[in-house]
Amino acid sequence: MALGLPGDSPHLQPEILANRPILSLGRGQRKDSTLSFLYRETKERILFLSDTQGKTASRLGQKVTISTAGERSEAFVPPRLPPVPAVRMDRLYTRLEAANRAIGRLDGVASILPDTPLFLYMYVRKEALLSSQIEGTQSSLSDLLLFESEDAPGVPLDDVQEVSNYIGAMNHGLNRIREGFPLSLRLIREIHEALLSKGRGSTKQPGEFRKSQNWIGGTRPGNALFVPPPPERVMDLMADLETFIHTDAPEIPFLIKAGLVHVQFETIHPFLDGNGRLGRLLITFLLCTHGILKEPILYLSLYFKSHRQHYYDLLQRVRDHGDWETWLEFFLDGITETSLQAADAAREILQLFESDRKRIEELGRPAASALRVHQLLQQKPLTGINDAAEKLKLSSPTVAKSIEHLEQLGIVRETTGRQRGRKFVYGEYLNILNRGTEPLNR
After folding, report:
1. What is the pLDDT, as a whole number, of residue 199?
2. DSSP string covering 46-108, please?
3. How many angstroms separate the most distant Cα atoms in the chain?
């Protein structure tokens, strides 16, 4: 057996110490003294200078040298999950309880929605917009609605296409999960393929783990803010992440697990493009597959957008210092804040729909058609007369008259200023949905 510092043995690589189990301390061993461990697989005795040093190193991952276009730089390879030493739950219990209560409240609101798919239809679009804005798109919710109605003059089409792709990716993932398909590497690649199916990302190997080096910030790995693992390590790292997702670990509350998975995915950065958007989608998919959420109604993109720099700083702090606890405090606060906001917005929307319905009913004979138009506007808060007539199987004059009544009640307003091809918006509903969706300054 060899005695030495980690890395002295030709058979044992330094990263193994961060990821493989070692036997416990000998009886009576002092925490601040020199420690030795017997490594199971090679039977080699590994010497540590202190218990604290060994544990800290296991959270920090490994820097490896890479060469890109002849320039040498360093890439970061994270250790496997879960963190060693384990996450300090004493710092997180209060926040964890608050997050669980907030999710319970949100689930309760979702259960009394008269038309949950209708609410999700617009809520998913808001999430798609927010997540894409974090990555720099400049479109608005109105742009997206115009794009989907195929009437989008002046709309930034590349930006809106990315948002539309996000909706397709989200729906694909949710449908597969509802069918009982596990949240696996195969499904992650399928979702990525949908995410980059059209527009700017379509040349960035949709649905394929990267085969070349990527980086975050800067113009090359040598001046980047962060360099993810080299491509030859991606498959093993993602396989480890998949194993962690499906490993039953009662000692790790599932909200904590979701926070760990999100950071690990963003650190691996397994695709050439779309990693941020897919990493945020994974949070909701995880909560749905494990029954934390009955409906996919919780999305953290507004919270991450509102605290964008702090979010990025905390991701990097995990990599640089192994500080999972500070990240998880932020993550749990985000779940609490976002859940309460979503529950309040859902109640506000329900109250708006009910209040407007009662006002429409007072119209008398015209109320029947006007209520049908109002119902359509709850799903599509921006619509035109011909489009509404086709969907409702009503004549265009009937829809036009109904919209005129809704205009007089102040429920809808015309947005184009044109005589032909006019569009009408359900103003108060869109105002609620629009909160927080202002494009970020570049």
Report:
1. 67
2. EEES-HHHHHHHHHH-EEEEEEETTEEEEEEEPPPSSPSSPP-GGGTHHHHHHHHHHHHHHHH
3. 93
Q: What CATH topology corresponds to 362-434?
A: Arc Repressor Mutant, subunit A (1.10.10)
The domain spans of the chain are 3-60, 67-344, 362-434
Q: Is 122 helix (H, G, I), strand (E, B) or coil?
A: helix
Q: Are 147 and 160 in contact (CB under 8 A)?
A: yes
Helices (H) then strands (E): counts for the chain = 17, 8
Q: What is the pTM of this model?
A: 0.78
Q: How would you label 411-426 residue by residue, b for 16+ Cβ within 10 Å and e otherwise?
A: bbeeeeeeeeeebbbb
67-344 fold: Fic-like fold (1.10.3290)
What is the Cα–Cα distance from 426 to 141, expressed in whole angstroms? Answer: 13
DSSP 373-402: HHHHHHH-SEEEHHHHHHHHT--HHHHHHH
**What is the Cα Rg of the chain in Å?**
26
Rounded-to-integer distance, Cα 158 and Cα 164, Å: 10
DSSP strand pairing (45-48 vs 3-4)? parallel
Q: CB burial class (10 A; 0-12, 13-18, 19+) of residue 341?
A: middle
Half-sphere exposure of 257 (CA within 13 A, CB side): 21
Tokens 């119209």, located at residue: 363
What distance lies between CA 370 and its chain's CA centroid? 38
Per the DSSP assignment, residues forming a β-bridge with 46 are 4, 37
Beta bridge partners of 438: none
Q: Nearest-CA neighbor of 22 among 31, 30, 6, 33?
A: 6
Residue 67: strand pairing partners: 72
What's the pLDDT tens digit per position in 7-51? Answer: 333 333 333 333 333 333 333 333 333 333 333 333 333 333 333
